[in-house]
Amino acid sequence: MMGKKTVNSRRIMAAVMVIVLLAALTGCVGKEDTQTRKKNKVVEIPMILTVDSSTGNKNEEEVVERFNRAYKGKYHIDVDWVMETEEEYRKNLKRMNVTDELPAIITDLRMLPSFYQMMIRKGRIEDLTPYINEDQEWKDMIEPSVMESVREEDGKIYLGPVSTAAFACSGVFWNRELYERAGISRFPETWEEFWKCCEKLKAAGITPLALHTEGTAWAPMLLATAEVAGSEEGAAFMKQLYPDTYQNEPGLKIAGTLKKLFQYTTQDALHNDFDIAYDNFVAENAAMIPNGYWMIDQIPDEMQKKVCFSTFPENKLIGSPETFGWAVVSTYSEKVKKGAVEFLKFRTKLNKEQKEELLNSRTRQEGTLLDDYLKAYTGNPQIVPNYQVKWNSLLQEDVLGECLADLVQGKITEQEFTQAEDESIRQFEDEQ
């Protein structure tokens, strides 16, 4: 035993020495690479991107790597990869703006409507209009609906857009095997069928929905706003920027739906973020979760064949392509800003190529989760605007984060919930 332990110790020590040596060599290579870029006067473009805590994947890694290869020796996107939720990243944007530590390119800005407008007013982000208008190639890459979504009322553009809305839509992911276990053969086509489906799943001992309340209550809000858009008044309400009241029929309808949804979710849904809802879905603790195209790659390989994607009942998808636009911070040098704009154009081009590849019938695989999504997107759905780009940030961050749990637990009524939403309007206006 002692001899075996000694041999193992030697092996461990040797392995450690190899790791240390490799780390040192890697560090040297990294330093040499950085020094080479500096020597060759490569323009460094700082950026912060997140690492998905559920999968460990680096978000947007492909476009960064492809750009750095294409522009090697001229531009280099220098990414600081951070393990943060989307909500944490957005809060840190505000902090970094105050301390003047923003990177040259920022994402998710349109998810913070009031902060975005403030950045425009104070000249903190570049007006990209002249860049796009003077570049016909870039303009031609952008779908008209996407261009319109990023254009402000005065005609200016501050967000480098994606090419297409094809990757910007949300619907419902659902587990076919759990459905079949409850005797359900297809996704519900109407909201009446949806609620019956929830009851049937629950009766079979299956939790219908993976939900949460933190992070602007993304999953339940997708369902509630998709349902309210079924009426003419509700659809018009969802198109309003900064509604002046929620104490109306659509507002009360949304509140009632939110309360009802939480009758069909997991016990850990309250006071948790989307990550918990995602974990419950992939662990098959719940049969459905609302989310967008981007979650397709986050579904584990072993689940891909049992998970389907559908529009919300009544053939609706939720999407606002402007939320995928990225901005260039104005305080950087002209060289850095020029490189950042070139990167945004490169991203638009890559997005266009990806759309063309996906929609090419020769490359599509029938019966896959991706094929489900493409059928939903090309099936002429009603596109409902994303509430996150329409409602004030205080409502999203505070009211939904705090009052929704109280509503679900019966501590406040639907009317009191909408009153809290209206109070956020007054507070928001006072802070402007």
TrEMBL record:
Q: Which InterPro entries match?
A: Bact_solute-bd_prot1, SBP
The record's listing under SUPFAM superfamilies reads: Periplasmic binding protein-like II (SSF53850)
Going by the entry's taxonomy, the superkingdom of the source organism is recorded as Bacteria
Alphabetical list of PANTHER family matching this protein: ARABINOSE-BINDING PROTEIN-RELATED, DIACETYLCHITOBIOSE BINDING PROTEIN DASA
The protein's name in its UniProt record: Carbohydrate ABC transporter substrate-binding protein
Q: Which organism is it from?
A: Dorea longicatena
